[in-house]
Amino acid sequence: MGRGDMHLDAMLRHLGAAYYDSLYGRAAPSDVRRAVHQVATHIGEDSGSADPAHRTPRSEQVRHLRKHQGRWHSRVADVMATDVVSVDRITPFKEIARLLVEHRISGVPVLTLGRQVAGVVTEGDLLGTRDRQAGSRRRWTGTLRYGGDRARFLRLTAEQLMTAPAVTIHPDATIAAAAKAMSQHRVKRLPVVDPEGKLVGLVSRRDLLAVFLVPDDEIARQVREVLAGAAPGSAAAITVAVSGGVVTLTSEPDAAPPRGPLTAAIDLAWDIDGVVDIIDHAGTAQPT
Length: 288
Fold this sequence. Notes:
Elements: H1 3-23, H2 29-42, H3 76-79, E1 87-88, H4 93-103, E2 107-111, E3 117-122, H5 123-139, H6 149-154, H7 158-161, H8 175-185, E4 189-193, E5 199-204, H9 205-208, H10 216-230, E6 239-243, E7 246-250, H11 259-269, E8 277-281
Parallel strand pairs: 1-2, 7-8
Antiparallel strand pairs: 2-3, 4-5, 6-7
Helix pairs in contact: 1-2, 10-11
């Protein structure tokens, strides 16, 4: 049996398992459609209606952040991509490599029949496997170490290539929590899952930077709202200027609010989306 036949055989078995599990509520109809699409693509009868989970993220898609205060109170759901390229556990090495190159991404989530995230395959996983295979060939020839051609083929599917368990995050998690998880685990992206562990999106380090793209005039408006709430009697005397996300507060020395309310307002302003820095000159004489 050739490699192409083994791949088709694996996909047909996967389709049968998806259909059976769907009858008992263990897999969604989208799992069956995705399995059918894979078989149709392999035999050259692709209808062109790929499952949404396999579509490429639209680079031109504009994501709108929710209008609320809180740079670190923004949620992963505000910035994540919802069109995610994913693979099944039986997806072979070459197909994964094609997806990474075609969509210009460095990793894909690996899904079970129920769309739970089983792991992640990255370009590093693929390159590392090739290095190990090359080393094995130099030490030993033949197919005995694989136990036959089928075992050799299956060693190079997503289930064997992936890093598991995957580091995931929930859509209601804060941007700060996502940034901390990426830093701690040294990953560039996180699959976003619902309470049942099903994939709902993907967030990358670049997505997290989206909170800093709030226009300066919008930042200024929100800072003024914070000042009006914390120091309602003196807020009108404070001038708010924002440039490149840097907030500068100025006022006449005799018109500044008490330091207590002003300090509290500044603490709140730090949590406004897009704020990079705050320069407090309120109540101090400015050079002429």
